[in-house]
Amino acid sequence: MAKSPSASPDTDGWEVQLRRGSLELAILASLWQRRLYGLEILRALESTAALGVAEGTLYLILGRLKAEGLVAAEWVDAGSGHPRKYYWLTVSGKERLRRMARAWAQLSANLDVLLEPVLDPKEAARDKR
Amino acid sequence: MTSDSDRQAIDAYLLRLRRGLRRLPAAEREEVVAEIHGHVLERLEARGDEGGGAVAQVLCAVGDPDRLGAQYETDALLRRAAGSRSPWLLLRATTSWARRGVRGIGALLLAVAGYGVALVCYASAVAKPVFPSRIGMWLSPGSTVTVGYWSGRLPSELIGLSVRPPASLIVLGTFGPTQGPVRELLGLWLIPAGIVAGFLCAFATTWCLRKLIARAALATA
Predict the structure, then answer these.
(1) Nearest-by-CA chain B residue for A61
(2) What is the count of structural domains for chain B?
């Protein structure tokens, strides 16, 4: 699992929490356009962000989302030697994802305003002097 | 593509997972195992022939089977409990949840305290007609009120649920039907009072637990 370069012991736990908190959103979002099976979802997440949890947890969360009626699933035997369980968003799953995405975008936009001066390289240079 | 020893390692992993999931319905359990099995096989195929250690790495990435099994089980229990009014199921779910974190421990403490108080109230109401002079709501020196059993000898020989309400409330004790260092406060009124208090306490505990559990079932692992 790749660690971000900024990770340090005191922010590690916080980062893990942040990733876990957004995991459900990321899983739902990966299913926005197509049906995927577990490993494909995992690859989609890995390509955008480190997962931060054991891979088995993904299936646990998928099961939870299915129990909540946000995703549906079906076994497909695609001749790969073993059947794959494909997942897709239900109507209420799409609705939930839209709401979550809006809330995330709003929060992120608000935070960006606050963080802009913090991330400003000129500020960092001033502090060093 | 997999050698015998690899297959053995995978089988051993799945066996442990299956054991961890033993309280899940069989169909659900086999589905979880099949899904994880497929995941492991496909990961191995994708890695190609890398030689030894690949299986161990893949299984390690999936996570500890005992822990994963326990998480699945807690999840299933919490889901069932969130829609249930059975104290037994709620207690089982919170016990399982308590093994996973501080919030679960808090919920378990609430469950034990709440249902414990309800149980003492019910038990006192039921036992009162059988042991009318031993079971009661007792006021002892130091203005402590105890619901439960008293031996009838020393004030220290009280067994039950004790509270120490503000002293001003204890004036009520002077209306109690008995005299002596330990007074009985309610007499036979303990029966309806115990049933009502027990019901209210159990009801409030169930309500709070269901709220907590519903919230926990939504949160990610």
Answers:
(1) B220
(2) 2
